[in-house]
Amino acid sequence: AAAAAAAAxxxxxxxxxxxxxxxxxxxxxxxxxxxxxNPPEGFNLRRDVYIxxxxxxxxxxxxxxxxLVLPPWGHLYHWQSPDIHQVRIPWxxxxxxxxxxxxxxxxxxxxxxxxxxxxxxxxxxxLQNYAEGWKEGTWEEKTDERPCIDQPxxxxxxxxxxxxxxxxxxxxxxxxxxxxxxxxSASIIAPLLLNTSSxxxxxxxxxxxxxxHYSGKDYWDTRRSMVFAKHLRVVxxxxxxxxxxxxDEKDRTQYNEDWEKMKFQHVLVLLCLxxxxxxxxxxxxxxxxxxxxxxLGSQKGRxxxxxxx
Length: 309
Description:
alpha/beta, disordered N terminus, two-stranded antiparallel ribbon, globular, 7-stranded mixed sheet
């Protein structure tokens, strides 16, 4: 697999043809980081991986100009409505992108296509664990180019391009593909990215990277910057008022468009009953039982308005 990956590089002239479109005069000369995760992963894990990659971007920005290309959404396990468009969904459908940009520079995938000049990703790294695992008591952060443990979910076409899912954008192609064993936090991969000549780099299976500083300031800055899109907040406010007798005025949770100025003392509980029941064989408490536990816990912790989603 490694030999095939090394041999299957697109001819330089083909790449130049793909880059024929001129760069936008307003676009800075910067490098692009793209990523994806294991297809079965759900919304919450994908949101968590974004936090890890944001830490990596912050590390890269200390040396060079990088921008994170937001991976389009689509085909998640929980999205089981067959009559709803579920592919090539931009982040602005779920999150307030200007709020994300206050934390790190981000662009949507279609902005990347327009700015970079074509549907090419110069380097794809498929992240994986180490085949030999790690010995107890000898944990160390490291990364090495290794033969692919599993067959990559990409195929090589006649022009020696790598074809894959690419978030539903069938015209997207990769020029080079390498399997990379990683063990450690997200920024462990920064030296590799800074030393590569590729202007656009994709990290596939990015969930294999860990948090740089879980629950540290950078973590919470990124988490707080992930403000839900305004049209979703409007729907949520209507639901709160109709079914929960809850408003910002009653709950004293006045919203501020600047997430850096938001301060809360409320608790949010995430219940994923459907996912748990699908993933594990053991019995899971029902919603009524969980509600009772939530009520008792809120009384014990003196939380006035516990919620769930």
